[in-house]
Write a structure and sequence with these properties.
Layout (H helix, E strand, L loop, with lengths): L2 H4 L5 H23 L2 H4 L1 E4 L5 E3 H14 L5 E6 L6 E2 L8 E10 L10 E10 L10 H4 L8 E7 L3 E6 L4 E6 L6 E5 L10 E3 L10 H12 L10 E2 L5 H11 L2 E4 L12 E2 H14 L3 E3 L16 E2 L1 E4 L1 H12 L2
Parallel strand pairs: 3-5, 11-12, 11-13
Antiparallel strand pairs: 1-2, 3-4, 5-6, 6-7, 7-8, 8-9, 9-10, 13-17, 14-16, 15-17
The structure holds 2,5-anhydro-1,6-di-O-phosphono-D-mannitol (AHM) and magnesium ion (MG).
Length: about 325
């Protein structure tokens, strides 16, 4: 079954937009595969003060150009662009907003490790009189998402997608450029013994996160009573894809190096889409106070603390946070 067949039961306008995003990702996959020194060269600095590499900018250009073809798209927002990208006026008919991180994990480009694209689709509600969209229209909580997905550019090019009725996986056939469904319903085991965190930040974490990691490091001799394994790719897409495939928990928590910044990852186009996918697969996502799908939105590029994955681990993290 192809991606297009899979979407036959989705709202036609939503299906069309997802297929446009999938087309853009086929182009991005080809550019990623081609490689070249210009990919990893710094070309500018984005709105978040981060270095943009050649491939970040190329991936962003491709997504903006290809997704704009979709007739239901009202506006876009990208990690790489300060302001929203209006496409057409918001009308009473409604439509969708597309938010994305065009190339997640771009520090991995030069070392030829998996990178990815993450996207979130939100409903555009009609307004009278017709007017161009403004950023506030896109600032909806994660629970409002109509669809969410990511693509991993790895040994295989894989897309994981939810339209709110479970999670399916697709693999890109490199000869035909067709997305074939490779997993009909991905589910996340509630119990896991694998975690992912950048442990070099240990001394900066809040006490509940330090306690969590102390406990898992103590293994069967500690309060958890079993040994844990650790993995960290450095691309959230690749870490989350492993977790969706075999269970696990991923943490990028708030830390006190920049106390006013909620975390490293961005809510609208990294945490929210991953939270919807994980929720639909039976897992959970927590920001230290609330479920990420309910995190209040204060800005298009807002940061958030992220603890996401197998339900039992996230429940345990919630309990540790409640005790402090
Ligand atoms: P990016 O969107 O600028 O690539 O940054 C997000 C990435 C995540 O994919 C990944 O989990 C994290 O940053 C890695 O951070 P670190 O450098 O601390 O390992
Ligand atoms: Mg990213």
């Amino acid at each position: 079954m192809t991606l297009s067949d899979h979407l036959a039961t989705a709202h036609p306008a939503l299906a069309e937009l997802i297929l446009a995003v999938a087309d853009a990702c086929v182009e991005i996959a080809a550019v990623v595969r081609r490689g070249g020194a210009d990919h990893s060269a710094a070309v500018s600095v984005n709105v978040q003060g981060e270095v943009q590499k050649g491939l970040d900018v190329l991936a962003d250009d491709i997504l903006v150009r290809v997704a704009a073809r979709s007739p239901a798209l009202v506006a876009m927002a990208s990690e790489e662009q300060d302001d929203i990208i209006p496409v057409r006026d918001l009308t009473a008919e409604g439509g969708y907003y597309l938010l994305f991180d065009p190339l997640d994990g771009s520090s991995n480009i030069e070392v030829n490790v998996s990178v990815g694209t993450i996207f979130s689709i939100l409903p555009a509600l009609g307004a009278i009189p017709d007017r161009p969209a403004v950023a506030a229209d896109l600032m909806q909580r994660g629970r409002s998402q109509a669809a969410a997905g990511y693509v991993v550019y790895g040994p295989q090019v894989t897309m994981v997608l939810t339209t709110g009725e479970g999670v399916a996986g697709f693999t890109l056939d490199p000869e035909t450029n067709i997305w074939n469904r490779s997993a009909e319903r991905m589910t996340l085991p509630a119990r896991t013994s694998e975690y992912a965190i950048n442990a070099s930040n240990y001394r900066h974490w809040a006490a509940p996160v330090q306690t969590y990691v102390d406990e898992v490091l103590a293994g069967k001799d500690g309060p958890r009573g079993r040994n844990f394994n650790m993995r960290w790719v450095g691309s959230m897409v690749a870490d989350l894809h492993r977790i969706l495939t075999r269970g696990g928990v991923f943490l990028y928590p708030w830390d006190k190096r920049e106390p006013d910044r909620a975390g490293r990852l961005r809510l609208m186009y990294e945490a929210n889409p991953m939270a919807l996918i994980v929720d639909q697969a039976g897992g959970q996502a927590f920001d230290g106070m609330t479920d990420i799908l309910d995190t209040p939105v204060t800005g298009l590029h807002q940061r958030v603390s992220v603890m996401i994955g197998s339900a039992e681990e996230v429940e345990h993290l919630k309990a540790l946070h409640a005790n402090t």
